[in-house]
Amino acid sequence: MIVGDTLDFTLVVPCYNESAYLHRSLDAIVMFLDGMRLNYEIILIDDRSPDQTVDCIKAYLAQHPKHPLRAVYHEQNAGRGATATEGMRMARGRVFGFLDIDLEIHARYLPAALLPLLRGEADMIIADRYYKFSIFALQRYLMSKVFRLLVQMILRIPPLDTEAGFKFFRADAILPVLDTVRDTHWFWDTEITVRALDAGLRVRPEQVLFERKARKLSTVKAFSDSWRSLKALLAFRRERLRQRVPATTGQRRAST
User: What is the Cα 169 distance to its own chain's centre?
Assistant: First the structure.
């Protein structure tokens, strides 16, 4: 039900070099959202992709003029976190969130993620990825497991999959938290999750299958990205200690 300019749901889609997947993935997303009978919108934000992503977005919008789609095109690369934040601030949905447009976490999980939020049963839904064995997914699986363990140990939070590109929120609960998030790149995912826990939000994991695209070129650089993530973790830990955030705050609030 629309109340003024408010919608049920806004999906933010950060895009960077996604021309190979965009049309097919948007078709799947729209199919599942239409099936839920929601009043929704989709905001596509291209973060200065050097490939044909912008052309693909413009073509899709032209081919689907009746769908609730809008797009933003960055003149300069802003980073994943900054792009997601921008879209969330633009959102009109009382529930909003984002997923990675390659659909390595498929759109079929949208109903399970959105319904608890729309019913007021949770404030944030975060993916809990499991993997089918694949040589293509092995590096990602190992890095994810190690990082997840480090986040739990260093920040002393429950064992959540903070990096997953599949997060949804109640707008009224997360917007005050969003104002406190500082990272504009990949650590943004972990920071917003931990700050949500620290703020006492009800964070619920949703188990999803992660299916690595065999032909997708990974942008992950194992050594340099791992070192950068560790430095970000330690810096964030120091900040939380300065703010004297109790280590048990998130543990009391995380839902399973």
Answer: 10
Read off the DSSP letter of residue 239.
Answer: H
pLDDT tens-place string over residues 14-52: 999 999 999 999 999 999 999 999 999 999 999 999 999
Three-class secondary structure of residue 113 per DSSP? helix
What is the rounded CA–CA span in Å between residue 245 and residue 241? 6
Which amino acid appears at position 31 of this protein? M
What pLDDT does 251 receive? 44
CATH number for the domain spanning 111: value is 3.90.550.10
Listed residue (101, 110, 111) closest to 71, CA to CA: 101
Q: Are 256 and 176 in contact (CB under 8 A)?
A: no
Question: Is residue 2 a part of any domain in this protein?
Answer: no
pLDDT tens per residue across span 223-243: 566 678 889 999 999 999 988
In a domain, 241, yes or no: yes
Burial class (CB in 10 A: 0-12, 13-18, 19+), 190: buried
Q: Is the pTM of this model over 0.70?
A: yes
The total domain count for the chain is: 1
Q: Are 103 and 20 in contact (CB under 8 A)?
A: no
Domain limits for position 62: 7-253
CA 23, chain centre distance (Å): 19
Rounded to the nearest 10 degrees, what angle do helices 110-118 and 22-35 cross at? Answer: 40
Report if residue 224 sits inside a domain: yes
Residue 162, in any domain of the structure: yes
